[in-house]
């Protein structure tokens, strides 16, 4: 099962047996000043002060968690004051419940004080930021990747000038797009920029990596509670004082408000001891509100009904007071709100809640209606106010919300899309329309990276309707989420039942379901699933979908590519035909679908370079559209392809990004695959302790019997670790389990990749005969036309366990000299290393040295310490060194015949085999045969390496 990561709790000292860190509150509800020290500050306040004064001296990101009133906001205000007094720039924003659906409203708050710095950015970088901040017309679709880049560049510009601290209060109520940008920037920015966020509850909000450093702000001790209470005006009697301390349970807001209530109305205010203390605090705020004049209460109702970003002028006018701002005087004197920078801000969320809930339903409805009348220029906000004002269901409101969702989708805000569609479904009078909107909302929630929400919405859709296409639309995100959370069998079963029982007629939907089924079949590993998929693919409808919904699951331009993938996978013909993908001027959604489809096809066909190209382009497009979670599986394939193609310097960054996406969406399959890739490369790098840690994390995330592909990969990396520790017998035993007695791979793709490892472990553990029989059986099971990569691995495996010298050398040469081997440089280097080992042991050190030198060069280039150590030792044993490579190659030139030298020179000049043959009146095949024998004599494996050898020979002739 997938175990959700827990926050990285930060230890600031041992103060209380249930808490890792100490927190406190100030003496006033609106926060402390530098002259009024915090109560219970100790280690936590000292740490925050150090972060504020010296950005970069501690955590880059720190979350303060806890219940309402525990002191999170006070701590952040304290940090703000300390930083400001030290000359450090502070940018801050705060979340408001009604604002969560307003795209980029939090970013606007955060960057408003530094808009002049935005103008310093290059125009091309500044443009997307101007668009989301309202300084330029909003485009049809927001480029989220460019927006992230612009925010990053802006923050780095600010940190270059002086220290910077970001503070986000009530981040759980910040709009999702702004929160994503803050999380991204905090992780990526270069320079000193600590980011402090607060959130209500005991865990970081969904959408944030659960492993970030976090502090759960604890309750005050009784002694600290007494000090805080004694600082308040009108100290209560001893009996009431002790009662307040007891009932507040260390919550600073409760202490302050209970003390005020007792001072104002007597100790009878504490009689409701059975009630939740925060409910009672809210009731005290209600009493304070009730004491205000009716007009003031009306103003506060309208302020509470707004989104939180309207100016005080708009709120005043909506409430019916025109432009007269003097009406706010009593509200400000009450201490319940502040009016600052033309905005109305409540001093605490519970005040806002009381101002809104203490009015009649009619009064709240009237407030929302008045806002809706004023906001014709803001359709999404107007739609939300109309929804809040409506009674029961209203199709016109539902349509407005769906239109607002479409606008948010074009802007890249899938979280807002899901919220709007969910609300639209609740407003829909027709049950089928409600179900359709729930299904769309489920898909949007999946795109936003919130699988639990997506599953809940999909369940509502399926329970609400019997319409097959709507039920099938809800099945799509359900199946996708089940696959990503390491339940491929359940995912496949959902698709099978949907296609056989609901029998949808929408071609786009069926293709999308079958595309997901390909992934489910691959990871579950059973060949029976492939056959079942073939039968399901026969159900593809002939009708063309009308594409009516703006979130159509399969764009028209992508259908041909997806159909080809489904057909080839289900009939085991992947990679038997070369298909050239042509870039067309189609929508971004169609491009993404095509790129992910072609990337999957290339990955399953062992075409690593193409897979990396397609997935990289597709993931880049998903970044721009703000739906990176959809490409999470492709991101893991990218990490694997980077390892396979020798681009190891890019692996860590790609793995980090994939892990971030997996953590946000609780994607166990993605998380486990990335951890397995990390274990693989750390083993190759020689970091075995790190590799062990990654293996342990991966193993805890999935059930092996239900995830055969992952289980095979994990066994392979465990075997590699065993080899690195010299336990070849243990490695051979593990790898034997990846194949049946008749050679049939346990998994058709993943098992075959372990073939050379299996042969090496068998040979090194002295089990040549057993390994040879198995390699022969596996070779038969793989068939006569396996992918090129598997063909090369099969040759290497056969060479490693061969009985005769002639057979061994033939297979080694086929594994090393094939030009296509360059696509997998590390695997080719391993073939060179093993061939060199074999040549040295057969008393041919001169032939061995160029191969071992070439292998060592590759291993050192990528950082494969495990294999570099072996190659270096073998090279020394063969009497060579790194510097001998060119000398050996140049020396090999004299061993060539005159015709071979002529052919090699022409090949070095860039001529093809056909062009060389035409000059020398020989067939291209004869030319290829000559080069086949020339390469090992010169210690090279590719045509372009010939030029270096020839130039060295020429230079030596001149000297």
Write a brief caption for the model:
The chain has 959 residues and is mainly α. It has a 6-stranded parallel β-sheet with strand order 1-6-2-5-4-3, sandwiched between helices.
Question: If you had to describe this structure to a student in words, what would you say it looks like?
Answer:
With 959 residues, this protein is mostly helical. Helices cover 62% and strands 4% of the residues. The strands form two sheets. A six-stranded parallel sheet has the order 1-6-2-5-4-3, sandwiched between helices. Strands 7-8 form a two-stranded antiparallel ribbon. Residues 1-35, 268-275, 543-547 and 883-887 have low confidence and may be disordered.
Tell me the total number of β-strands: 8
Largest sheet: 6 strands, parallel
Structural class: mainly alpha
Which sequence of strands runs across the widest sheet?
Answer: 1-6-2-5-4-3
Helix content: 55-70%
Secondary structure tally, helices: 46
The stretches of 5 or more residues where confidence is low (pLDDT under 50) are: 1-35, 268-275, 543-547, 883-887
Distance between the termini: 69 Å
Query: Based on CA inertia axes, which overall geometry fits?
Result: elongated
Range of strand content: under 5%
pLDDT average, as an integer? 82
Radius of gyration: 33 Å
């Amino acid at each position: 099962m997938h175990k959700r990561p827990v926050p990285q709790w930060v230890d600031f000292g041992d103060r209380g047996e249930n808490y890792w860190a100490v927190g406190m509150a100030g003496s006033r509800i609106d926060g402390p000043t530098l002259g009024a020290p915090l109560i219970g500050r100790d280690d936590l306040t000292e740490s925050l002060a150090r972060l504020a004064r010296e950005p970069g001296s501690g955590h880059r990101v720190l979350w303060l968690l806890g219940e309402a009133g525990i002191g999170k906001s006070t701590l952040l205000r304290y940090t703000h004051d300390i930083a400001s007094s030290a000359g450090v720039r502070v940018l801050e924003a705060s979340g408001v419940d009604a604002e969560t659906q307003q795209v980029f409203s939090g970013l606007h708050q955060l960057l408003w004080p530094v808009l002049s710095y935005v103008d310093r950015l290059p125009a091309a970088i500044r443009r997307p930021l101007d668009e989301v901040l309202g300084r330029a017309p909003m485009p049809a679709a927001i480029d989220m990747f460019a927006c992230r880049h612009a925010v990053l560049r802006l923050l780095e510009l600010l940190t270059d000038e002086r220290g910077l601290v970001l503070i986000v209060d009530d981040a759980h109520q910040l709009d999702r797009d702004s929160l994503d940008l803050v999380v991204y920037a905090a992780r990526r920015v270069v320079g000193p920029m600590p980011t402090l966020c607060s959130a209500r509850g005991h865990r970081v909000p969904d959408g944030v990596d659960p492993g970030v450093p976090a502090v759960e702000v604890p309750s005050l001790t009784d002694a600290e509670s007494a000090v805080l209470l004694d600082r308040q005006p009108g100290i209560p009697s001893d009996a009431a004082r002790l009662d307040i301390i007891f009932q507040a349970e260390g919550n600073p807001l409760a202490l302050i408000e209970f003390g005020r209530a007792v001072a104002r109305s007597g100790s009878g205010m504490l009689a409701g001891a059975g009630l939740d203390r925060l409910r009672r605090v809210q009731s005290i705020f209600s009493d304070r509100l009730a004491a205000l004049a009716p007009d003031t209460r009306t103003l506060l109702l309208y302020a509470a009904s707004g989104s939180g970003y309207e100016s005080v002028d708009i709120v005043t006018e909506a409430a019916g007071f025109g432009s007269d701002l003097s009406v706010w005087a009593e509200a400000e004197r009450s201490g319940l709100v502040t009016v600052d920078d033309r905005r109305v801000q409540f001093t605490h969320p519970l005040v806002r809640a009381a101002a809104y809930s203490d009015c009649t339903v009619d009064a709240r409805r009237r407030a929302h209606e008045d806002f809706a009348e004023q906001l014709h220029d803001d359709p999404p906000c107007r739609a939300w106010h109309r929804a809040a004002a409506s009674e029961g269901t209203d199709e016109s409101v539902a349509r407005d919300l769906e239109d607002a969702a479409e606008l948010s989708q074009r802007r890249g805000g899938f979280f807002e899309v899901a919220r709007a569609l969910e609300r639209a479904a609740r407003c829909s009078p027709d049950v089928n329309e409600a179900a359709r909107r729930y299904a769309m909302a489920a898909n949007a929630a999946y795109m936003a990276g919130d699988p639990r929400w997506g599953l809940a919405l999909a369940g509502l859709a399926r329970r609400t309707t019997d319409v097959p296409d709507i039920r099938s639309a809800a099945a799509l995100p359900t199946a996708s989420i089940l696959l990503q959370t390491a339940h491929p069998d359940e995912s496949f079963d959902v698709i099978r039942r949907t296609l056989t029982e609901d029998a949808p007629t929408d071609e786009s939907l069926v293709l999308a379901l079958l595309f997901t089924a390909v992934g489910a079949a691959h990871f579950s590993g059973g060949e029976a699933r492939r056959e079942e998929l073939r039968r399901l693919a026969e159900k593809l409808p002939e009708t063309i979908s009308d594409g009516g919904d703006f979130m159509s699951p399969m764009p028209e331009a992508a259908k041909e590519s997806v159909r080809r993938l489904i057909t080839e996978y289900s009939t085991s013909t992947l990679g038997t035909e070369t298909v050239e993908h042509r870039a067309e001027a189609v929508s971004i959604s169609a491009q993404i679908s095509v790129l992910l489809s072609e990337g999957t096809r290339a990955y399953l066909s062992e075409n690593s370079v193409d897979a990396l190209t397609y997935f990289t382009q597709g993931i880049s497009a998903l970044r721009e559209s703000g739906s990176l979670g959809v490409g999470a599986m492709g991101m893991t394939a990218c990490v694997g392809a980077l390892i396979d193609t020798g681009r190891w310097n890019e692996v860590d960054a790609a793995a980090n990004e994939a892990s971030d996406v997996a953590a946000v969406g609780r994607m166990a399959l993605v998380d486990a695959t990335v951890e397995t890739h990390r274990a693989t490369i750390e083993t190759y790098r020689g970091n075995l302790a790190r590799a062990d840690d990654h293996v342990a994390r991966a193993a805890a995330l999935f059930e092996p019997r239900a995830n055969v592909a992952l289980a095979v990969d994990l066994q392979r990396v465990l075997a590699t670790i065993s080899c690195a520790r010299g336990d070849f017998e243990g490695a051979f035993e593990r790898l034997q389990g990846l194949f049946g007695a008749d050679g049939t791979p346990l998994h058709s793709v993943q098992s075959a990749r372990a073939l050379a490892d299996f042969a090496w472990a068998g040979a090194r553990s002295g089990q040549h005969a057993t390994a040879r029989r198995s390699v022969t059986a596996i070779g038969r099971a793989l068939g006569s036309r396996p992918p090129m990569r598997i063909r090369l691995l099969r040759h290497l495996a056969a060479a490693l366990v061969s009985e005769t010298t002639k057979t061994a050398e033939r297979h080694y040469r086929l594994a090393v000299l094939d030009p296509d081997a360059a696509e997998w440089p590390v695997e080719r280097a391993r073939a060179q290393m093993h061939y060199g080992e074999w040549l040295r042991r057969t008393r041919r050190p001169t032939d061995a040295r160029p191969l071992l030198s070439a292998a060592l060069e590759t291993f050192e280039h990528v950082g494969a310490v495990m294999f570099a150590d072996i190659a270096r030792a073998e090279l020394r044993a063969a009497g060579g060194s790194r510097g001998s490579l060119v000398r050996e190659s140049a020396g090999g030139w004299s061993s060539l015949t005159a015709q071979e030298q002529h052919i090699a020179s022409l090949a070095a000049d860039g001529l093809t085999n056909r062009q060389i043959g035409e000059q020398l009146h020989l067939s291209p095949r004869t030319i290829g045969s000559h080069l086949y024998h020339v390469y090992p004599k010169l210690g090279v494996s590719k045509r372009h390496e010939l030029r270096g050898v020839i130039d060295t020979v020429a230079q030596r002739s001149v000297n």
